[in-house]
Amino acid sequence: MYIETDKKKIGEIIKNKRKIMGLTQFELAEKVEVHEKQISRIEAGINYPTFVTFAKLLNILKLTFDDFSSNSNLTQNQKISKINQIINQSNDFELNIYCETIKTLKKNLSQKT
Q1: Does the predicted model carry a pTM greater than 0.85?
Q2: In terms of domains, do 23 and 49 share one?
Q3: Are 61 and 18 within 8 A, CB to CB?
Q4: Is 26 domain-assigned?
């Protein structure tokens, strides 16, 4: 959650998402209705965004609170372990759905890279 996350981590997530979306700090600042310097300070981990600014950032950057949770920082091995746990607790019907879903996701993701 937001409270659990430090300023640097919040800034990194916002900066990365802004860059992925192809926005400059100035463009993001205009959309959020703050000064460009405020976006710079947030991304640098100097300032926390206000609640209103944070809500606007979430909306504009298509982020959720989960993107800032400690679960999003899991290592690859931890993610694989969580997936294995889900698989081990699944019945045959669920496993078939997971397989088809993963195949489709993998195919679509590989087309975008």
Answers
A1: no
A2: yes
A3: yes
A4: yes
State the residue for tokens 């931890």.
78
d(CA 109, CA 56): 28
105 occurs within a structural domain:
yes
| Whether the predicted pLDDT of 3 surpasses 50 | no
How sure is the predictor about 77, in pLDDT bands with cuts at 50, 70 and 90? confident
- In angstroms, the CA 54 to CA 62 distance is 12
d(CA 29, CA 3): 23
Residue 21 is encoded by which pair of tokens? 């979306």
Mean pLDDT of 53-76: 81
Residue 82 near residue 74 (C-beta atoms within 8 A): yes
- Give 65-103 as a DSSP string: GGGGSGGGG--HHHHHHHHHHHHHT--HHHHHHHHHHHH
Q: Which long-range contacts (CB under 8 A, 24 or more apart) does 16-22 make?
A: 17/61, 17/62, 17/63, 17/67, 18/43, 18/61, 21/61, 21/62
